[in-house]
Amino acid sequence: PATTAPPATTAPPPAPPARPLRGLPGYTAGFEDWDRLNRSPIPDNSPDARRVGFDAHGGVKNVHVNRPPARLRGPGGAQRFPYPGGTILVKAASSGDFIGLVAVMRKIRGVDPARGDWEFIEWKRSSEGGRFETSPGLTGATCWGCHASAVDTDWVFTILER
Prior knowledge:
Layout: E1 35-36, E2 60-65, H1 69-72, E3 88-95, E4 98-107, E5 118-124, H2 141-147
Antiparallel strand pairs: 1-2, 2-3, 3-4, 4-5
């Protein structure tokens, strides 16, 4: 009897590349699927959100990182500092049903050695379909003025939870 070849298997099509939320730069694309530093969401106006005396990023927050947690841990499982170059941290704050604020710390060698080589920038929008926008008041000194109190953890308030 004639033999027939098994049916050809086809791999599923690749997932489309992640796209950034409207108005955000490409390097934030897919941040909601990145690992989180915080195990559970940080409540609005909670002690963890008020580390500088007030909640600078109102809403319920999650801090996402573009590095696998294993790469951030040292011996014994504790987080290792400083963060490696190329690290991107995205704090997303939700008020109601949508993310209305995105604050980014991006570690770029040579960008600001006095402040751990972090670039700080924040974007806001007022509706779910709205475009994220920023302004000079949402960058630089406005951000690192508060983050200076977290210099021992490489300018980052939320550390990787075990």
